[in-house]
Amino acid sequence: MTEPTAAMSRSPVLRVATDPTASRRDTGSETARRTATAVPVVRTGPTGIAAFEPLFLATAGGRTAFHPRPDHERIEGIVGALERGELLPEVAAAVVEHDPGTRSLPAPETGPLSVGCREVLGSCGWVTPLVPEDYDLVSPERDAGPVRDRGLLGRGRGDAAADEDVGATWATIRETDGDPVVVVNANDTDDRQRIDRTLLASVPIAVLDGIAAIAEYLGTTDAVLYLNGSETGLHRHLEAAIDAAAAELPVVPQLVAGPDEYRAGAPTAALEALEGNDRIEPRIQPPSPAVHGLYGRPTAVHSVRTVAHVRRLLGNDAPSDATDRDPGTRLFTVTGDVAAPATVELGSDDSLEAALDAVELQGAVKMACVGDVLGGITRGLDVSATRDALAAAALGTEGVVELLNEDRCAVATAGERATFAATENSGRCVPGREGTKQLAELLREIYHGSFDLAKIRELGRTMERTSNCRIGARAPRPVTTAIDEFEPVFRAHADGRCPSGTCSENL
Prior knowledge:
By secondary structure, this protein is of the alpha/beta class. It contains 14 helices and 14 strands.
């Protein structure tokens, strides 16, 4: 196995951006290495744009040429030109001029990589994942204290402070008796969401750096990175990252694998799994994990992307809007009826519509589910990428924009998600256990001529207000928002007709 090589100090250099944790396949990097005699070939991580990968980035003298998915003959040509100190602009998707010492991928002005901004995603695809020298580490010099009063909101379903002030959580932990612990929750079985996995695959040492900064501020050396047990390639990758960076960081986490179950990704269910409990279910709150978390200790449970945002706010080039409400950017995976998914980063002034430019659509977009599998259904994406705007539109903040084309049926889509919630909920509370079953049944009854809108809405309100788990509380969201957008379609089904012509009775 070739030892990873630093990319930052090299020019010319050929970067091959692809997922290093995926099962082995021909990325073309071996062809490049066999062809090269003087130019280093460095394998970097994914950029977030799956349609482009493997992406060959040929850099020489402050210019980089982008070559998505070149064949072997093209690779040989790219290497040959680079060894002469030349690029091949005539066959490149783009050529970008940049500071020779840039530590962020120099995004083109057009194409998928130009969508939104690249602040948290900046180093993805550009740095060598397992080489500490490619990163500007912050935790050896400062802890996460300066972020406490920035108003940063937790990001993602796996964060116990999701849509809440992270600094307030930290303040509670510091005020609570006991030895704190940091848990970074990266266990998500829903393949719609690729944000956290992209960060862990592409910039694992940056994530470790952010974990260390948080742990230092909370006064602990105890941290856990909680992964899905089925992600064996990612587990090996992170073990290598920890080994590579252990001497550089003040705190390194312990890797722990959790169950391959959607429910195990909920913040307090993650704590149950980490404690080795047989029954994986969310805890009744209060107390919050910040007061009584892992083994009763005050615990910060954060997602990978929250940690990445903390590190970004600590950096020397932190964004200028760092003190605004809901500071920083938001990451979204654009997926669904597209040729390949893409993970993009949008600022507070960006609309979700901008994300459409990152993917190749398969048919016209009929609707989108924004959030995750239990997100909100909408016809339009003219919504700002902020917590308040998404909440006002009854959409989710979990970071997925799932595009669904004209062949999709709104009733079937809502029914599939209600059935998912009925299957995946923990069963701990009555609204989650019984409410999800009733919701799925009410949708099935539509196919038999009964569309009881008032009953669906009342059940949804009850579940949202009284469920202990997020699955139970959010299960009504795709149903009620789909009805808001497509009520005539629901009524047509009750009359025995599917306007899309694609629906079956089996939800």
